[in-house]
Amino acid sequence: MPTSKTLFPFPIDGAFHPVFLGPVKAQWTSAAERKGFSLIGRAVDRLHVVLGCHTCGQPTLKRINVVRDHAPECPHCIAARRAEAARKMGARLIAPDPQGDRHYGVYEFACGHTGRRQHHRVERAAAGGHGLGCETCTEARHAAEAEARDWQLIGRARRRHPGYRRYAHTCGHRQDVAVANMRHGDVDCAGCGESWASKPSQIYLFDFTLPDLPVVKLGFSSNPSFRLRQVQRDPGQTQGKLLRAIPIESGHRAICIEKALHAHIRAHCPDLIVPPALFRGPIRTTSEIYHHHARSYIQALLEAVAAGWDPSASGSPDNAAA
Ligand SMILES: [Zn+2]
Ligand SMILES: [Zn+2]
Ligand SMILES: [Zn+2]
């Protein structure tokens, strides 16, 4: 049986293909129907048929043995699914993989940078409501976080751990540090001995506007104004303000006081705690966030700390003042 000179009058998978003259077996048609396709005809050579997808209506070329023995897939439906997953995350699938792996593609992210991604990971991230992280932006953020701590990001860590990078201190010493520790300034320089634990710190109170919910955040940092910028995903929306910061002689002392203050509030006024589900999107934090009406109460606790009250010792600020 010959391949005809006649072409199918519509593009199939983006190209015009010749009709193959020959009978269509009933079992191929029924196999195609069972698997979600109409069998339109034979094409190209004795091995191929044209299927019409029941979901999207588009034609696709398949080998007969795939139709008969396997689960044929519609490339148009797959492409639409991937495009939709990318769109959900503000990204676009812009090209096939330059390395030729059909499981990968080149995506353009919301920030305008591009990167190679595995399609099914993109779809999984979209289904799970996760973002599509951009390495370029992530590294730029890590570099800025390091600069705020007097360190410089120089590249990959010596140790094989995705959470670490290599940094240079202002003294010239280089070492691996966990990205999360650098972000919070929890880093000791093994070269000159400067330590976050002994470095002066501050206890702060921030004010944020979540959608329909004003809140405050109590925490510690050696650099509250940097922390304020960094903790907000979209500062235009959350409009964070620093309400109060009190100096503490060391990072170690600050972390003890902060923990004790949270415990004090939890023990005396648990109603002030905002459930994490309400702030997890707009504010990057794992520690407690409180309702806005807790503001004056927490301010009073901070004033007591500034006046010498030690919340990590037992007792309330009133009887501790004695
Ligand atoms: Zn389809
Ligand atoms: Zn980017
Ligand atoms: Zn150093």
UniProtKB/TrEMBL annotation:
Stated name of the protein: Uncharacterized protein
Species of provenance: Jhaorihella thermophila
Lineage of the organism: Bacteria, Pseudomonadati, Pseudomonadota, Alphaproteobacteria, Rhodobacterales
